[in-house]
Amino acid sequence: MNILKLATFACVLLASGPPPRAAQLLPPGATAQILDTGYRFTEGPLYDGHGGVLFTDLWPSNQQATTPSHIVRYDIASDTSAVVDANSGSANGMIFDPLGRVISCDRDRRQVSLRSAANIAVVESVLVDNYLGTRFNGPNDLALDVAGGLYFTDPDYENRGALPDAIYYLSPAGALTQLRTYLPSNNRRPNGIVLSPDGKTLYVAVERGKHIMAYDVSPGGLLTNDREFARSDITINGTPINPPVGPDGITIDAAGNVYAAVQSGVYVWNPAGVRLLDLPVSQRPNNVEIGGPDGRTLFIAAGTSLFGVELNVPTPQNGDYNGDGTVNAADYTVWRNTLGTNANLSADGNGNRMIDAGDYDEWRNRYGNVLGSGAAELFNAVPEPSFTLLLLAASVGLAACRRR
Predict the structure, then answer these.
(1) Domain boundaries defined on the chain
(2) Across-strand partners of 176?
(3) What is the mean pLDDT of residues 110-137?
(4) SS3 220
(5) What's the per-residue H, E or C state across 359-398?
(6) Selected residue with higher pLDDT from 209 and 374
(7) 4-8, 17-21, 98-102 — which one is most confidently predicted on average?
(8) Measured between alpha carbons, how far is residue 207 from residues 91, 118, 188, 213 in Å?
(9) Residue 199 half-sphere exposure, CB side, CA atoms within 13 Å?
(10) Measured distance CA(353)–CA(231) in Å, rounded
């Protein structure tokens, strides 16, 4: 880059200010709007990649014979909804596996289920339902790593007393490890769980503890460096409060900002644990998910309804795969590390829900862009993928064609 271009780039940065971060996450005047309502207790929102949002409607365990819990699909374009599983076993948290099948935590079945991609109501297999021969209390929420390993929480909301409240890791080979237990009465109910975009940090919402824990992820899915990441019993200004419950479901955006459903709204923290904003919601939030056709909608399962609000979050479609406001070599690293999977869609630049060679092309075409300021030449050379990476991308594409 010559001196003239460097000076021009500096002027662009000064004129445009820093990339959109904390203050710009919520557009001015944006509020959470009801998309669908009339349910008993909404949970587990999951954008399906085809213009719809799956969510669950939970009923008490003692009503399952007469009023079973079910799964609903809300269609964004038509503003209509339909029940897609009339007896879900009290499915709660849901996530897609690399083949487009839904994995769900089924509270009343006390298991983690793998559901058919063709029909979500069909449970193809039970991935796990016990620890050392003892049935789970009622799995609640889950996160999938790029290797295919599954983290999930098992709080005892039904007071079954089967196992201590805990989080588990189910390895790709099927080995189950109890990672952490939450024993004191004021520090129980591990609930929402999510991985950072780079897969290096696991966040767990502990409802009774009124905080979110963070753990470093080690090889084999093990956890180290236990630490408190954030609390939900203080205001954004740091004033202590005494809410009846703590954080419930959580999600994360491409920049690593953590969103938690709490008693009065959605709280958001940056990766350093700094509270960015509070989003009020007219009904008590239970769970959250970021998705939608442009990847900018925060879906909120709250009370008897499904809410939505548009955010100013980084999206894969602009090539900024790590969400730092600049399209550069760091985004290539995110693409390279997730190539061939759909467990982490931070680098899904072409929106096909698979990290493949097309996402590299999307990134390359935007290389050097500073979001909000147009194109700027930041580096002299675009990293080229190795032959092995391209071969893997080609094999992924071929496998996808064979599945159609």
Answers:
(1) 33-310, 331-403
(2) 170
(3) 97
(4) helix
(5) HHHHHHHCCCEECCCCECCCCCCCCCCCHHHHHHHHHHHH
(6) 209
(7) 98-102
(8) 19, 34, 7, 11
(9) 25
(10) 33
Length of the chain: 404
In what helix (H) or strand (E) does residue 125 lie, and over which residues does it extend? strand 123-128
What is the spatial order of strands in the sheet that 42-47 belongs to? 42-47, 52-57, 70-75, 80-85
Which residue reads 């979001």 in tokens?
A: 371
- The pLDDT, as a whole number, for residue 87 is 97
> Strand, helix or coil at 288?
strand
Q: Is the four-CA dihedral 383, 387, 388, 391 of positive or negative sign?
A: positive
Residue with tokens 């409240």: 165
Question: What gap in Å lies between CA 250 and CA 206, rounded to an integer?
Answer: 11
Rounded to an integer, what distance in angstroms lies between the CA atom of residue 86 and that of residue 331?
42
The yes or no reply on domain 33-310 and CATH 3.40.1000.20 is no
Whose structure tokens read 């009503």? 63
Contact 320, 312 (CB under 8 A): no
Contact criterion met (CB below 8 Å) for 259 and 252:
yes
Q: How many CB atoms lie within 10 A of CB 219?
A: 6
For residue 249, what are its two tokens?
């479901």
SS3 of residue 330 by DSSP: helix
For 3, the token pair is 């001196």
> Considering only 98-102, 116-120, 131-135, which range has the smallest mean pLDDT?
98-102
